[in-house]
Amino acid sequence: MKKLLLIFMVGMFGLSHAQKVPTVLKTGFSKEALKQKLEDEDGKAITIQQILDQHKGKVLVIDFWAGWCRDCLQALPKAEILEKNNPNVDFVFLSLERSKEGFDKSLVRFNMKDKDNYWFASGWKNDFNNYVDLNWIPRYMIIDQKSSIAKYYAISPEDPEIQQTIDTLLK
After folding, report:
1. pLDDT tens-digit profile, the chain (171 residues)
2. What do you get for the CA distance between the two ends of the chain, in Å?
């Protein structure tokens, strides 16, 4: 009986903490989400709007990750393949590290220094992450050339809809 109860409790814990697909797949960002501040590697503040403006006219893949996230680390090699297979697409990496020190260490440890990296200094719960229903990482979004959301929700860089969306946008 104890084993059955333990299995049930572990199963319920797993289900309650599993990534949940958002019920509404958004195609744009709220004003509050666009004003969300992050920090670059030098600690300089930048908003989501400024990041999108830097990549306007290009297809952009946003990769939410952290060095403490086992699923994220397992996805990194696959994300690198996606990036190499799409040289005409920009990639931005939004880190959910718990500290600036952790952010800096993860960039070095996982060979991310040459990428476009930003850190949510405000933590996981903020206007942008709340707006995009970020409840788990890794998470991938595709932004079109006009800064609209083309693919709202993917949990793996191997999701075939990511490449299909990129291919459609680049036609």
Report:
1. 655 554 555 454 444 445 677 677 799 999 999 999 999 999 999 999 999 999 999 999 999 999 999 999 999 999 999 999 999 999 999 999 999 999 999 999 999 999 999 999 999 999 999 999 999 999 999 999 999 999 999 999 999 999 999 999 999
2. 59
- Contact between residue 140 and residue 157 where contact means Cβ atoms under 8 Å apart: yes
Distance CA 124, CA 14 (A): 20
List C-alpha distances in Å: 23 to 20, 86, 104.
Answer: 9, 29, 34
Strand partners, 149: 143
Is residue 153 within 8 A of residue 21, CB to CB? The reply is yes
Helical ranges in the chain per DSSP H: 2-16, 31-35, 48-54, 70-84, 100-109, 127-131, 160-170
